[in-house]
């Protein structure tokens, strides 16, 4: 079992008050992540509201993150998933050209692949568009409603996608997680994507995780991971339970805009969310801040600033 566990942050896409892209904020986000020991960024995922961005905005965002992270040791994974596979391929080519470290793609979620074989045929041209980069499938059935076997995907895709590196597994099926991790003696890199049960990913031997709350609570998760590897299981379990408490607070206000608001509490204003997500009101933000500031996790985040 690995003794290290990388935290990868999926950055919020920063917007100006008028809803336009605020690329100037990326530098501040990256400095915050680097200061907090984040190993990499997963750009334009669900947290980054990728499906609410134009292709050109996504190209600009990917290019900016790649540029900024050159001054750090952080890995840059660009999520290029799109309902139009040609657009996903364009973004994958751009990611390779601009120097990203890897690409990932979501399954199309409007007209959906109906089988694992169909999913592979959606992924293959995207992976081929960036042949020099590791390729990840981003499995998040709660969002895409594409519910296919990831162990079967790895088994079949291993022969058809040469640069397949692994999965971003945002899926609470822990049986399938174990099967993916042990497939062909651990051939693939399985990044866990469920913050509220991240400790399970550590325990089963994932090399790392991608999660929204790592944007602002990485010190807490690092402390929890350290407790697990030191054999202090009560402390590790307590840390996971405290993380769930934070997540529940965010969910009460709508998770995504609440998470963006918490970044502003740390002095990093990523701006509003885009429709169809409903923004939180000023009154809700004040209430959220009162609740969050009572949590030990927030004190740890402030101390790391």
**Structural class of the helix and strand makeup?**
alpha/beta
CATH architecture of the domain at 6-217: Alpha-Beta Barrel
CATH topology of the domain at 6-217: TIM Barrel
Strand content: 5-15%
At the first level of CATH, the class of the domain at 6-217 is Alpha Beta
What average pLDDT do the residues reach? 96
Unreliable segments (pLDDT under 50, ≥5 consecutive)? none
Protein described:
There is one protein chain. The protein has helices spanning 25-35, 55-69, 85-98, 116-129, 141-144, 150-157, 174-182, 198-204, 214-229, 233-252, 255-265, 282-293, 296-303; strands at residues 6-9, 40-43, 75-79, 102-106, 135-139, 164-169, 189-192, 208-210. It is an alpha/beta fold. The protein has a domain at 6-217: Alpha-Beta Barrel (TIM Barrel), CATH 3.20.20.70.
Topology, pairings included?
Blueprint: E1 6-9, H1 25-35, E2 40-43, H2 55-69, E3 75-79, H3 85-98, E4 102-106, H4 116-129, E5 135-139, H5 141-144, H6 150-157, E6 164-169, H7 174-182, E7 189-192, H8 198-204, E8 208-210, H9 214-229, H10 233-252, H11 255-265, H12 282-293, H13 296-303
Parallel strand pairs: 1-2, 1-8, 2-3, 3-4, 4-5, 5-6, 6-7, 7-8
Helix pairs in contact: 2-3, 3-4, 4-6, 9-10, 9-13, 10-11, 11-12
Short note summarizing the structure:
By secondary structure, the protein is α/β, with parallel strands linked by helices.
Distinctive features:
globular, 305 residues, TIM Barrel, alpha/beta, single chain, 13 helices, eight-stranded parallel beta barrel
């Amino acid at each position: 079992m690995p003794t290290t566990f990388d935290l990868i942050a999926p950055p919020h896409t920063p917007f100006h008050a008028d809803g336009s892209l605020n690329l100037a904020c990326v530098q501040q986000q990256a400095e915050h992540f680097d200061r907090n020991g984040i190993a990499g960024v997963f750009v334009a995922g669900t947290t980054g509201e990728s499906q609410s961005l134009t292709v050109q905005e996504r190209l600009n965002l990917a290019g900016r993150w790649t540029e900024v992270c050159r001054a750090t040791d952080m890995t840059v994974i660009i999520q290029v998933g799109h309902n139009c596979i040609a657009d996903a391929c364009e973004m994958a080519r751009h990611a390779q050209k601009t120097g990203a470290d890897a690409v990932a793609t979501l399954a199309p979620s409007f007209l959906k692949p109906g089988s694992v074989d169909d999913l592979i045929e959606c992924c293959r041209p995207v992976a081929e568009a960036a042949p020099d980069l590791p390729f990840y499938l981003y499995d998040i059935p709660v969002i895409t409603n594409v519910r296919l076997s990831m162990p079967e995907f790895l088994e079949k895709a291993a022969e058809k996608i040469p640069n397949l590196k692994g999965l971003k597994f945002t899926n609470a099926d822990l049986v399938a997680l174990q099967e993916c991790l042990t497939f062909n003696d651990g051939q693939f890199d399985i990044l866990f994507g469920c913050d509220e049960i991240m400790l399970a990913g550590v325990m089963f031997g994932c090399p790392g995780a991608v999660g929204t709350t790592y944007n602002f609570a990485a010190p807490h998760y690092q402390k929890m991971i350290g407790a697990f590897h030191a054999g202090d299981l009560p402390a590790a379990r307590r840390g996971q339970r405290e993380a769930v408490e934070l997540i529940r607070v965010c969910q009460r206000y709508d998770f995504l805009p609440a998470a963006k608001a918490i970044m502003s509490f740390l002095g990093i204003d990523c701006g509003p969310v885009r429709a169809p997500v409903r923004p939180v009101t000023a009154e809700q933000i004040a209430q959220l801040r009162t609740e969050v500031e009572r949590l030990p996790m927030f004190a740890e985040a402030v101390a790391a600033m």
